[in-house]
Amino acid sequence: MTSTAQPRARTAPPDRLGHVIFIAAAAAMGGFLFGYDSAVINGAVEAIRSRYDVGSAALAQVIAIALIGCAIGAATAGRTADRIGRIRCMQISAALFTVSAVGSALPFALYDLAFWRVVGGFAIGMASVIGPAYIAEVAPAAYRGRLGSFQQAAIVVGIALSQLVNWGILNAAGGDQRGKVMGVEAWQVMLGVMVVPAVLYGLLSFAIPESPRYLISAGKEARARKVLAEVEGEGVDLDARVAEIELAMRREHTSVFKDLLGGRYLLLPIVWIGIGLSVFQQFVGINVAFYYSSTLWQSVGVDPSQSFFYSFTTSIINIIGTVIAVLLVDRIGRRPLALIGSVGMVIGLALEAWAFSFDLVDGKLPAAQGWVALIAAHFFVLFFALSWGVVVWVFLGEMFPNGIRAAALGVAACAQWVANWAITASFPSLSGWNLSATYVIYTVFAALSIPFVLRFVKETKGKALEEMG
C-alpha cells in the first residue's frame, strides 16, 4: 500500500527567517520597479501630450510601448537565467533600467522617449520572471506563498511611492506638470527619479546569494550547500536537500520553448493555464487604474488636484489589499483567494459600468453616480489586490513541473505583458467610444475568471516544487 501522506513542509528557524525575508525582498525589487514605472507615467501623461502635441491614440502607444519591451524581456529571461544565473540577470535588469530612466527623463523627441521606455520595459520583463522564480527556489516551502507574494507587495508599494513622489514634484513645480524643476520640466524629473530604485535594485543583487538550484546545475555544490544552510538553518539535512534537488534535476533538462509543445493543444495544458491566469489578471482592466487614473477622473469632471489625490488613495487601498493577501495566501490557499477576488471585482466593475453610463451634467457625473464610481473603483482595486494581484505571481512561481518551469514561466509572463499592452493601448480609444461599455467588457472577463479557476486551476499551497507535475 502506498502512503498518501504529504511531505512535511520545511521551515526556516526563527534566526534564519529574517535573512530569508531580506533575500525575498531584495529579489522583489524588480516588482517595485514595475510598480513605480507603471504609476509614474500616470503623472506625466498630460504633459507628454502637451509637449509633443499628440492625440490620444499616439499617446497611448507611447505609454503602452514599454509593455512590448516587458514581453520580450519576460520571454527571454528564463533561458538566460538558466545559462548565467538568477543574480546576474537581476544585475543586467538593474543596469538597463538605470539607463532607461536617464534616457526617458531627457528625450529629444517622442520616438526617443518611446525607445527608452522599451529598454526599461525589457528590464522590467526580465525582473518579473526572475523575481518569482528565484524566491520560489530559495524560500522554505512553509513560507513560500508569503514570500512569493513579496513580488506583488513590491509592485503596489512602488505604485504608491511614485504617486507620492509625483505629488511632491508637482507641488515643487507650482502644480504644473510642465513647470520647471531643477532646470527641466516636472514630468522629466518624475521619470528621472526612477534612477534611484534602479540603482538600489542593482546594489541589493550583490547582497543576496545565488539560487541553490542554479548553483547545483552549474556544478557549484559547495556554494549551494552554504546557501541552503543560510536559508533553512544549520540543522537541515544538507545531503538530503542536495540529493533531492539533484534527483529532480536529473529528471529534467534545461527547458526551451519546444518543451512546452503538446499535441493537439499546441502547448501543454499546464502552460495554457498559466497563460490564462496571466491574461485574466490583466483583462479585468486593473492597469487602467494606474496608467490612466488621473486622466479618467478628469474626464468625468474631477479637477486635476483631486484626481491626483484619488490616484494616491487608490494606491493605498492597493497596499492594504496586498497585505491582506500576504496574510491569507498560505492560510486559506491560492484558489480560494482567487475566487473571492473574482466575485469582488465583478461587483466593483459592474457598479463602475453603471455609474459611467449616465450622461455628464456640466461636465461632471451626477453626484450619486460620481460617488458610486469612486467607491466602486476603490472596491475593485481592493479585491484585485487581495487576490489576483498576488496569487497569480505565486501560482506562476509554483505551478509548473521542474522540467519546464523556467520556459513556462517566461511564456506566461510574456502573455501577461502582451495582455497588459492590449488593455493599456486600447483604453483611450474604447473609453472615447463608450466608457460604460468598456467597463462592461472588464466585468465580463472578471466573471469568466470564476469558472476558469474552478475548472482548471489546482491548489499549490504547501507543496514542494519537486512535487509539481
CATH topology category name: Growth Hormone, Chain: A
Q: Helix fraction?
A: over 70%
Total number of beta strands: 2
CATH class: Mainly Alpha
For CATH, the homologous superfamily is named as MFS general substrate transporter like domains
Oligomeric assembly? single chain
**N-to-C span:** 22 Å
Radius of gyration: 22 Å
**SSE pattern:** HHHHHHHHEEHHHHHHHHHHHHH
Characterization of the model:
The protein has about 475 residues and is mainly alpha-helical. It has helices at about 15-25, 30-40, 45-50, 55-85, 85-105, 110-140, 145-150, 150-170, 185-190, 195-205, 210-215, 220-230, 240-250, 270-285, 290, 295-300, 305-330, 335-355, 365-385, 390-400, 405-455; strands at about 180, 185. It has one domain: Growth Hormone, Chain: A (Up-down Bundle). It is about 75% helix and about 0% strand. The protein has a two-stranded antiparallel sheet. It is globular and about 75 Å long. About 55% of the residues are buried.
Tags for this model:
disordered N terminus; 2 strands; single chain; 469 residues; mainly alpha
Give a short synopsis of this structure:
This protein is mainly α and 469 residues long. The protein has 21 helices and 2 strands. Strands 1-2 form a two-stranded antiparallel sheet.
